[in-house]
Amino acid sequence: MLDKLFNPDVVAVIGASRTEGKVGHAVLKNLLEGSARKIIPVNPKVTEILGLKCYADILDVPEKVDLAVIVIPAASVPLTLEKCGQAGISYVIVISAGFKEASLEGARLEREIIAIAEKYGIRMVGPNCLGIIDTSSSLNASFAASMAHAGNIAMMSQSGAICTVTLDWADRIGVGFSKFISLGNKADLAENDFLELLKTDDSTAVIAAYLEGVKDGPRFMDVAREVTRRKPVIVVKSGRTAVGSRAVSSHTGTLAGSDAAYNAAFRQSGVIRANSLEEMLDYSRAFSTYPLPHGKKVAILTNAGGLGILTADACYSTGLAITSFEDVTIAKLRERLPEAAGLYNPVDLLGDASAQLYEYALEILLDDPNVDGIIAIVSPQAMTDVPAIAQVLVDTIQKSEKPILCNLAGGTRITTGEKLLNRHGIPNYPSAERAVASMKALCDYSSIKIKEHTNSVVMAVQREVAQKIINDAIASGRRTLGLESIGLLKAYGIPVVQSRMAGSLSEAIQVCEEIGYPVVMKIISPDISHKTDVGGIKLNLRNAEDVERAYFTMMSDVKHYMPNAQITGVQVQQMITGGKEVIIGMDRDPQFGPLLMFGLGGTYVEFLKDVSFAIAPINDKEAQHMISSIKTYPLIAGVRGETPSDIKAITDTLLKVSQLVMDFPQLMEFEINPLMVMPEGKGCLAMDIRMTLRKE
Amino acid sequence: MLDKLFNPDVVAVIGASRTEGKVGHAVLKNLLEGSARKIIPVNPKVTEILGLKCYADILDVPEKVDLAVIVIPAASVPLTLEKCGQAGISYVIVISAGFKEASLEGARLEREIIAIAEKYGIRMVGPNCLGIIDTSSSLNASFAASMAHAGNIAMMSQSGAICTVTLDWADRIGVGFSKFISLGNKADLAENDFLELLKTDDSTAVIAAYLEGVKDGPRFMDVAREVTRRKPVIVVKSGRTAVGSRAVSSHTGTLAGSDAAYNAAFRQSGVIRANSLEEMLDYSRAFSTYPLPHGKKVAILTNAGGLGILTADACYSTGLAITSFEDVTIAKLRERLPEAAGLYNPVDLLGDASAQLYEYALEILLDDPNVDGIIAIVSPQAMTDVPAIAQVLVDTIQKSEKPILCNLAGGTRITTGEKLLNRHGIPNYPSAERAVASMKALCDYSSIKIKEHTNSVVMAVQREVAQKIINDAIASGRRTLGLESIGLLKAYGIPVVQSRMAGSLSEAIQVCEEIGYPVVMKIISPDISHKTDVGGIKLNLRNAEDVERAYFTMMSDVKHYMPNAQITGVQVQQMITGGKEVIIGMDRDPQFGPLLMFGLGGTYVEFLKDVSFAIAPINDKEAQHMISSIKTYPLIAGVRGETPSDIKAITDTLLKVSQLVMDFPQLMEFEINPLMVMPEGKGCLAMDIRMTLRKE
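C-alpha cells for the assembled complex are given below, as produced in the milestone run.
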C-alpha cells in the first residue's frame, strides 16, 4: 500500500524551476540528492534543469511516472491533475498552497481536485504541504532545507512549519526519522492512511504526529487501536481550547472536535497524547531508543543529592513508583559505595563518583527484580569525568533490557557527554522532569500494549419499539423530548421510575393514587430544560392535599420565571429514596460521533466537572473504566463500610445507552439525569431523560 | 549587613593547597582571579602557594582578616573556628563536608561549631557548601569550576551540586548572576539572612533559590513578604513527597501532606514557586530581562500557524488572556500583511515573513492598549532570515515597555539568532509553552507586587476563659477533646449549637426536653474519632420514644464496632436544618506553625480534596481568599438564584480560629466539623469540634 508513493522509480516535478530559492527548484534538488531514480522536471518555459531534460507538459513524458510532485499556482492544479490522471499516474503530492486554507475560491479548487483525483483513482498528498521524506528509500520529495537523518521515528504533521521546525531541531541533535510526512490540507490521504501504512513499516518503531483534527474519527479509532498494539503512537493535538479552536478554523479550516472527545478517543485507541511538541519529541526519542519497562518501579541514580530529590518528586507527581530494593542490592551497593552515599532510592553516589562507580551501581540496580527502569543523573562536579560516565551509560544502555533514561545536567561541561549519547541515538533529557515524563510514557504504553481488547457486547433490545417512538417524535416536528419519551429506555431494557403524565390537577391526583404516595411532581414543557430553576419540581408529596398545594405553587412559579413557556402538563413519579444520583449523557461530537459522559448527579457535576467520557460504542471494560475514573468514585463504591451502589447496574445502563445512541444517529443529545442507583444488587432507575433529535 | 562577607578586603583560605584538583587549591585560585584584594593562604605544611606567603596558623596572620574560607577536614574545624574567633574574624565560610549531612558525629561537630560561632559573634556560611560568588565585588570564594558571568539574578541553593549545575548551564548560554550563594547545611546563615541582604542589593533584580526546607518558617514569611514587594523571589522547593513521621489523625493533617504548608506560605508571602530548576531559571531570566506587564492580555505573533495555535492553547491552559485587538490595530496590520495572513490573535505573518514585517507588526501590536505583552515565535521556514528577525527582536525589546518573550523554534538554523538574543541578555525559550509559562510568571508577580498588604484584625475575645479550659484539660491529662470543650469556641465568640452532655438515657431525655425537639444524639468517647463509622450519630429524633430507641441502638452498634471503646455518655444537640456544612481545621506544621484549612463539609472534602490552606495569622483578605478558592465555592456563594450562604460569618469564624490557634500554641490540631453555615445574614453554628493538645 502506498509503496510507490514512498519508493517511486520515476518521479516528475511539475513546476520544476531553474531559480534557486524557488520551491520548484528545491524539490527537484532534494529529489536528485536521494537514491538513483529517474527524476523528470516538467515546465513549459525551459528545456533543461540541473542537467535534466525538461518536458513542457506531463503528457509529453514518455516514461510511466509513479509519482508527480506539483509545485504550480493553485488555479492551474486542476487541469494538471486531470493530465496526471490521463497519464496514468497513481500518486501525486500537491505542494502548492492557495486552497481551502486561503479562501473560498481555494476551497472550491480543493473540492475540484478531490473530484479529479477520485475520478482517476489518484492518491494525493496535500495540497498546501511540504512534501514527504523516506530515509529508507532515500526519497526527499519535499522542499525541506535538508534531508532527514535516518532513524526509526515516523513523523507526520498537519502543519508544514512544524515539519520544518522538527527537522531543524532534529538536525541539531542528530535525531533520525524513517518517514517524514507533511499532511497539508489532507484533501485525500490523511493520518489514517499513513497510520495504516506505518503499522507494518519495518523501518518505523514509533509514530509521532502533530494534528489539528482527524479526518474520520471512527476510522481513526479503529486504525489507531490496531497500530498501537504493535507500536506506540504519540500525538500532539492542538486547538484544545475555545480560543485555540478558533485559530484552527482560520488556519486550515479543520473542524476541531471538543477536547474531551479527543482525550477519550486517544485513550480508548491507545494513542499517547503529548501536551507539546517538546513532549512529543521527548517521548518519541524514548520509544525510539529503549525497551519497554515491565512495570513502573523506578530506581534513581545520581551524583547529586538535590537532583535526586527533585527526580523523586517528579516520579511521585507523575505516578511512577520509587521502588524499594532487595536486601542483596543494598548489601552490594554498600560494598563499594562511600560511607556517606545514599544506598536507598535515590541512590546517591556522591559528588566525586567515578565512571567505574556508575558502572558498578547500574549493574547492581539492573539486576534487582524490583527495578523496572532507571533514571540516571550526572552533574558536572569538580571531580566528575562526564564523558567517561556517558560512555558507561552508552555501554550499559546498549546491552540492557530495561530502560535507563539519562539526565546529564548542566551546560558547558556536559556538552561532550551529551554529544556522545546522541551519537549513539540516546537522548539526553535536559532536566530530570523530562526524563521522568518520558519514563512515564514508556510505562503507559507498556500497559496499553498488554491491555486486552474485548469486543462490545450486544444487548437484547426492542429496536423496533424505539424506532417507532423516534419516528413519531420526528413526525410531530418535535426536537426536544423529555420524560414523555421514556418508552425509549424501556425498549432498551433500562429500568425507569413509575411515572405518568397528567394534564390537569384532578388527573394528577388520580395518577398519584394509582402510583401510590409519596410522589414527585415535575412540570412538562418543551421550553424548560432546567426544571429546578423555575420551581418546576416538587418532592415528597404525601397525599392529595400536598399535591394540590404543590400544583398551584408550581404553576404560579413557572409562569413567573418563564411567562411564555408552553406547559403541556405535569409528570408524576414514585418518590425514590436510598439511592445515589448519577448522570449518563451523550453528545454527538462532530469528529468522533457519540461521546458518552458519566458522573455523579446533582450540583456537584456542574461545579466540579467530575465526569468521565468515552466514545461509543463501548464494551464493559470501558464502561467500568468510565465509572471508576471519576474522583467521586469512592462515594458510589462505598466508603467506610457503607454498602456500595449497584455498579453492575450502572455498567449495564451505560452499555445500553451506548447501543441506543449507536442505533439511532438521529439522537443528537441524550441524558438520563438522574439515574438513581440503589445499593448493590438492587439495580438502578432512570428518573428523568432529556434528548434532542437531529434537525432534518 | 554582611558587606564584608561579599566584599572583604582581606581573605584567608585555611586549608589552602598547592595541589591542583584539590578544593583548597581551587578556592585560592578562584579568589586570586577576582578583584585585587589581599588573599592569605593558611597551611602548616607549606610556606608559599601560587606566589603567596603561606601562614602555618590563622593566628600567625598579622593583618586583620575579614573573611576566612575553611577547607580542612571536619574534625579540625572546631579548633580552627575557635582560632578565627580569637583572631577577631567576623565572617567564615566552611566549605568542608562531614557534618550533619554525613553522620551523628558530624551532627555533633556541627552543634559544636554553631556554639563557637555564637560565642565569638562569627557569621558563618555552610558547612558543606560550594562557597559564595559576588560578581559586583568580583569575589569568587568558592571551588566552582569558573567565575559566574555578571548579571542581575541572585541565586542561592541548599545543594552544592545544583549550584554547579546552574553555573555550568549559565556558562553555556551566557546567563549572569549578581550573587551566587551555596547555603550548605545552613548552620548559621540561612535563606532568611540572604533574602534580607538581597532586598536592598542594587545589583540584584531577581532572587532565585533552590531550597529543601526553610530554617525559620514564620521569619521566612515576614522577610519574604517584605522582599517580594520590591523584587521577585522564585523558589524551587524539593521534597514534595516526603512523608512526615508524625502520625496524623485529623482531616487537616491528612489532606495537607507536607507540601500544602509551603504552598500556602509561599503564596501568602508573594514567593513564586517553580516546579523545577528549568522553570526557576526560565522565570528568572524573564524577570531579569523584561519590564512587568500591566495585565495578562497577550498577543501572539508567529510565522507558523501551527505554532500559533499551540501557543494559544498554552496561554489558555495557564490562564493568560488571548487579547482582542482594537480596530485600528487590525486595519494597520491589514495594510502591510499578505492577504492570507492571520490579522486576529494569533497574528500569523505566514511562512515567508521578513524581518521588516516582524518589525512592523511588533510596533503595531505594542501600540495597542489591549496588549500587555507579546509572545513572538519564529520558525525557520525556507525564506526566513532568522538572524535578521532576531536583531529586530533585540532592538524592539530594548526600547519596549512591554515584555516580548521569544521562541525561536528549531535547531541548526536558529542557533545564530538564539546566540544573538543571548548576547543581549535576552532568553530564547526553546518552546512556546515555556515562553508562555514565563509570561504567566511575569503577570503573577505583577499582581503580587500591587497587592495591598493589610494587617490582621484583632477580635475581642475572652482569652482567660479559654486559657482555663485548656489548663483544665492539661491538668486532667487529656490530650484529645471533643464537644465537651466547646466553651473554647464560645470564649472566642464563635456561635455554637445548643448542646448538652448526658451520662444516661434518662438524663438524655431530660436534656432533650430542655433543648426542644428535634435533636441529634452523638456518642462521646475519647477512643472514637469518626462517629458515623460506628453508628455513633443519630439524627432527627422527634420525641422521647425516638431518643430511647436511638440510645439503645447506638450503644449496641458502638459496642459491636469498638468493643473496647470507653464511653462517657452522649451529646444531645438541637437539630439544625437549612444550612450548609463546611469544615475549618488547623494542623501545626513543623516549619510554619498553624496551618489553617477550609473546605466544604461531608464526604466530599475527603474524596475531592477540595480544600484551601493558609498559615495563621490571617487577615480578612486572606480568609476571603481561602473561602473563594475552593472549587465548590459556587455552592456556598449561591447557584442559580439560590440564597448565598453567610460568607461573612465564615470569614469571621476563620479569623477567630486564626486568633485562637495563635494564642494557644498548646493546640496541636483543631477542627470545627461541621460548621453549619446558614443563609446570608443568618450566621453560622459550630456543630462539633475536635482538638488535640500538645504532649507536655
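The first strand of chain A starts at residue 10 and ends at 14. The mean pLDDT of chain A is 91. Further analysis is deferred to the final report.
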